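[SOLVED] Predicted holo structure with flavin-adenine dinucleotide

Edit: marking solved, answer below. Original request kept for reference. I posted the sequence and ligand SMILES and asked for the 3D complex as structure tokens.
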Amino acid sequence: MTRPIIHWFRRDLRLDDNTALLAAYAAAEAIVPVFIVDDAILRRPDTGANRVAFLLESLRDLDAGMRARGGRLIPRRGQPEAELAWLVAETRASAVYFNLDVEPFALARDARVRARLAGRCAVEGFEDGGLTAPGAIKTKAGTPYTVFTPYKNAVLAQPIARPRPAPAAIRTPPDLASEPLPTLAELGFATAAILPPGGESAARARLSDFIRAGLERYATGRDALATDGTSGLSPYLRFGCLSPRRAYWAAREAFPEGSPDADAWIAELIWRDFYRQILFHFPRVETGAFKRAYDDLAWENNPEWLDRWRAGRTGFPIVDAAMRQLLTTGWMHNRARMIVASFLTKDLLIDWRQGERHFMTHLADGDLAANNGGWQWAASTGTDAQPYFRIFNPTAQGKKFDPAGDYIRRHIPELRAVPERWIHEPARMPLDAQRAFRCVIGSDYPAPLVDHGRQRAKALALYGRASGGPMPSGLQSGG
Ligand SMILES: Cc1cc2nc3c(=O)[nH]c(=O)nc-3n(C[C@H](O)[C@H](O)[C@H](O)COP(=O)(O)OP(=O)(O)OC[C@H]3O[C@@H](n4cnc5c(N)ncnc54)[C@H](O)[C@@H]3O)c2cc1C
């Protein structure tokens, strides 16, 4: 019998189309499938309970999938380099395989693992997490793409690998000691959020529901805040419960002749790859602005305003609904993410990194590359070619993307009785209406924290000073 190969699961919690796992399956008769609970990740201040809960459920599903194929998941807890060294000695494994990550933390950890295992066994990393490998697509000049549309066109101009099915059988060495997966409480976390079910089975079910019933309305419906117009697949893609190539081909095959809806959805999958390759090529974005001039923005960082934003008590209903959606579900609609991020940075003049951290703490799909890309996009410090004077008016955004106020009412009980006429600006209600609709401003629901027009002018001045340019004429006020 050949010596086994260890497959180290990290952000690839699936059996389907798993590049490193399939390579191990092809090369060895037995596989040691391990997941290492790493306290260095659990202790990070932005590791939130929602993501840990989703992870644990995904691991349970992975174990079930493996047992159905004759194997089982081996959970371990500790430092990955130490745990893997033990496991190599214990199993006499010939190699450790894993799928590559792009985060600086993961790259440093993987370098430690390679150093520790050098001379003991082979260590191989595989490209798996995107439609394309993060370093594979470059401009004609050989530089990384920093603008989305040409990057998207370059991705679409080349073949995307077809997904490959899960190994038919998985043989795990029978005499291996393993502990049960820890519970959320054992890891020191608790959450009251209502999260989607974790795991590969739930991912595949959601993908097929979306392809069958949601994709055909995606281009027109994706921005409507009150309807489920998007796939809801982000936590699954985040943890690798779903292969991005499986998602891509499902959309392509649903519309072999092409369709604006499938194209729009595939563009979103490419945004995901785009930000992965930005983080891969420019790891400095983890801590600083992609556009360096904006590292020195003189944020006001009012702590009370930050607290009000986090709690969904700014007095701007669309912002508050979105922030409460995040707290109660561990997810937020993409349009809402853009609105609240613009509001934090350009109305409250608070550093985007504060918002990024809060999102990371609560999102089940929290992902450094996408979250950082989204925040830097909203704060105009990132790759986006649009200048900083794109400032969302939160009230206008609410009226446009939640016209009847259904999203607002779903997430803000205090506003449930408020009629459509005032739902986006409840502070404009006369006092008798406030009383009649059980929403007295200042006691039941807050008055607006700021004046949007005034804050917008301040933001323009702030960004104008940092970029060294004059403030664009005609943009000094209004909104
Ligand atoms: C400020 C801000 C923060 C964000 N933080 C995250 C994050 O931490 N994790 C995350 O996965 N996405 C993040 N996004 C991107 C986007 O909001 C979510 O991916 C999307 O809302 C997930 O819902 P869905 O699965 O229904 O998306 P769909 O519309 O169905 O899109 C399909 C998939 O494409 C990917 N995707 C879609 N939009 C983007 C995007 N703009 N950037 C990168 N990938 C995208 C996601 O994996 C998503 O599941 C952020 C966006 C903003 C503006």
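OP edit: The chain has a mean pLDDT of 95. Thanks to everyone who chimed in.
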